[in-house]
Design a protein that fits this description.
Layout lengths: L1 H28 L3 E3 L3 H29 L1 H6 L4 H19 L4 E3 L2 H22 L3 H11 L16
Helix pairs in contact: 1-2, 1-5, 2-4, 4-5
């Protein structure tokens, strides 16, 4: 059981590192998403922002999807781009309140493209570097079930 907890904690650390890396990449690629400070301060800021973004997504996204399921259906899921952009803007606002040097300038196109970039790059990296939990689930799915046990039946010989 302890092994399973270690895998889960390792998975969280890997996901946080991947998210932090993609947030940092977004600051390089998308104009309007900035992180400032010395190198050590930037690393800490990006790690905290990745954690904030993960928590914001984990808490608010299911609520938004439940309340706004009609909008997701009506737009065939395109509203999720706007929702992701708004969640990135909320992350920027929370970071500002925590005196972190992370800022997203505007909703369109900065926040929407930034959230899209972060989502796609994180997805690709998570395909290449699965966390510990994914590895266990994939291995259990790939193994065929054991064959059924044969019951011994005495046969009538003539």
């Amino acid at each position: 059981m302890e092994q399973r907890g270690t895998i889960t904690r390792m998975g969280i650390v890997i996901r946080l590192a991947v998210s932090a890396f993609t947030v940092w990449l977004a600051t390089l690629v998308i104009d309007g998403i900035t992180v400032e400070g010395t190198t050590g301060r930037k690393v800490l800021t990006v790690l905290v922002v990745a954690a904030i973004f993960g928590i914001v997504n984990a808490v608010l996204r299911p609520i938004i999807k439940t309340i706004g399921c009609w909008a997701y259906l009506l737009t065939l899921g395109l509203v999720s781009l706007a929702v992701n952009g708004l969640l990135l803007m909320l992350t920027s606002w929370i970071a500002e309140k925590l005196d972190l040097a992370f800022h997203v300038d505007e909703f369109w196109p900065t926040a929407v493209l930034g959230a899209l970039f972060i989502g796609i790059v994180s997805w690709v990296i998570n395909l290449v570097i699965p966390d510990g939990g994914d590895k266990d689930r994939n291995n259990s799915r790939r193994q065929p079930p054991p064959p059924p046990r044969q019951q011994y039946r005495p046969q009538n010989y003539r």
